[in-house]
Amino acid sequence: MATYAEKESKSASMRALKGGAMGYETAARKYVNEGIGKLGLKPNEKDALREKLIPIIARQMGSDRSRTATRAKGIVNRETKARLKKANQL
Prior knowledge:
Blueprint: H1 4-16, H2 24-37, H3 43-89
Helix pairs in contact: 1-3, 2-3
């Protein structure tokens, strides 16, 4: 039976994949477009800003998702090790 941490780890690792729950590029476009829409810029200014921001945001999202997946995997390993140690002491 999978523990909560194992489920979270699997979920995080799936999201960390390039085509995960929402790909980095798609998520970055959505995030940037929502923010730019509120600025009241001219269309050509919006396009220039999109071209500049989307790659930066996508790279940051990928880094954050990867870090989360790694952290979740570490938690699972730590909990498994603690469970085995406790079982061996009995």
